[in-house]
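Many introductory courses stop at the sequence. We go one step further.
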Amino acid sequence: MAAGSERDLIDDATLWIGNLDPETTTSQLLALCSRFGVVQEVHFIGGCGLVKFSSRLEAEQVRPPTARQGPTLAPSRFE
C-alpha cells in the first residue's frame, strides 16, 4: 500500500499520514519525511503517522504519492 494516501496538516507543522503499511517503522517514516525538512517528532497511532516538522512550510512540501509514482513504505525499500 502506498504511504500516506491520505495526508493532512493537523496544526502548524504536524502532518497526519494515513494508510501506512503496518510494518512501517519510525526510522522509515523519518527517512522519507526528512527529504522535505527537519523532522522533530514521529509518532504512530494505529496505521497512521504523525510527523512534526520544524515549520509549516516544510510540512506542506510533502506531496502524496499517486498509484504510479512516489515512495512506498514497504520494508524492502529501506533495508
